[in-house]
Each structure stands twice: as C-alpha cells, then as structure tokens.
Amino acid sequence: MPNHAPVDRRIWLNGQFVPWHEATVHVLSHSLQRGSLVFDYTGVHQTVRGPGIFRLDVHVARLLHSCQLMGLPLAYGQAEIEAAIIETVRANPGSRAVKASAFYASVEVDVVPLDRRVSLAIAAYDPQADILAHLPGPPRARPRTVRLWLEKKTHQRREDIVSPQAKVSANYASGMMAKSLALKAGFDEVLFVNEDDQLAEGPTTNLFVVDATGRVRTPPEQRVLRGVTRLSVIELAHSDGIAVDEADIAPHELTTAREVFLTGTTAGVLPVESVDGRPVGETCPGPVATRLGDRLRLTLTGEAPGFEHWLTYVQPQ
Q: What's the predicted TM-score (pTM) here?
C-alpha cells in the first residue's frame, strides 16, 4: 500500500525554501509543455564525517553546460549553485539524493518563451521513502545484474537534433518508450545505437565493454551523455592500472565480450548478464566489474585513499 503521509521536505526554489507540496508549476508552463527543463542529479552518501555529496563541482558544471547547450539563461553561477545544494542537503536530514532543476516556469504559447526568466529548484530527498513509497503498486526491483535488450531499429543520441550531452527532459522521452518496451519483453534495461550504428548508452546509464582481448572500452564521450559515474569509473580504473579506451564499439562485439557493464548515479557499476537473451562471458559479474564496483563503493563512503576530495561534506567541521 502506498504511504499517504505527507513528505516532510523543503525544496530550495529561487533562493527560498518552500514545503515539498508547494514546489509546483502551472500545467501550461513551458518546461512541462515543451520538455525544456534541464536538470542534474547526484547521490548523498553516509560517511564517518556525515553526509557527503558526490562530485558536486562536476555535477554543477554539467548542469550549467546543459543550460548553455539548451539556451537557458540561468542567473546563478557555479559557486552559488554549489552553496545552495549544500544548504538544501543540510536542511533535509536523511537525504540520499539531490536534484537541481533549471526551467521556464512561465505559461507560454510559442516554443520560444517570451518570459526568459529561468527558475532554479533544488530538492534533497530519499528516493525510496519520499517517492517510491508513495506510488501505487510494488516498487520495481533493482537487480544486481541485468538482462539487456539492444534497440536495433531506432537510432538515438543524435548530435544534429539535441546534443546527447544536454541533460534536458526532452532527451528522455525516447528512452522512456524504449525501456517500457524492453520491460514488457522481460528485459531489465535497454541499450541504444547512434546514427552510425555504433553502441551508445542506455536511457540513464553509460556502457563499458571488456572485449575478447581483455581491453576495456567505452563509447567516446562526444557521442553520449558525459556521465559523472562514467568519468569516475575511468579515473578509478586508471588508478588501478586498468586502461580504458574511448572508442566506437560495434553491436556484434557484445556477443564475444568477456564482460559488459553499465554505470550511472543510481546504477553504480551494474554488470550485464545477457544481451538479447544471450549470456555475456563466462561469469557475471566478471572480475573487472567487480573490482571497479568495489572501488566505487569505497569512494562513495569516503574510504578510498586519494579520492576523498570527490565528496563535499555538508556538516561544518
């Protein structure tokens, strides 16, 4: 049964805190009708030093870059947004995630808004307790390994339409449709190809492949969303002496790969057990995914030497 108790959170909206249920926009707002909302999302992790926000500076820089790509004239800068996020996490104890959204709140007629004021909202919350527990039906289970379906007919992530590096809500509509079809067919996740029929990414994840020669590869960042977890896994791999090549990957290479895994803020390092029903490698999870997944988990809790600076602690020391 869904939890009907009100969510006791405060959302930072244009410099002021408002109750969770009052953080609303008009049904005819440009952001809702045109899909123009830009956002970024990162985890808040429990450590011995209290809550820590993962790679705050990189996430805020990506938010600003997305606004630039989409032409949203956001009035806040990097330092102001970082400070507001820290303040919001501090004001919402027990948060496990934080999402910053930049959007046109005005009601508009044309696709190009006349009111160019961009609102900024920051929400810090527990996805399970504050959202999933309030939705009807049982929550979708999060598997430890996934059955992947390769989207073969529709080309995604086209630079000539909307940059794949823009974290804008409109970019997620095609992913919603493709993943819905994958779930109905009995799969857990979907993987896209780009306009050149090379592997790209999932709706909310980046792709890594350990090929038949043992080489770790990931699609070039110019053709995918610049995932912060993707970047972090590459840096962790390099620190462990594991080379990662950014190079095109053809779909047929999945059939001979030793390992395939996905990365993302929510996913972490997520091993792929099969693609289109065909098993991947000899064991799942494989040794590379296991090693990098363990390294990432230690990093998120502040226990990885040399990477403590990736966490921004919200409690004064």
A: 0.94
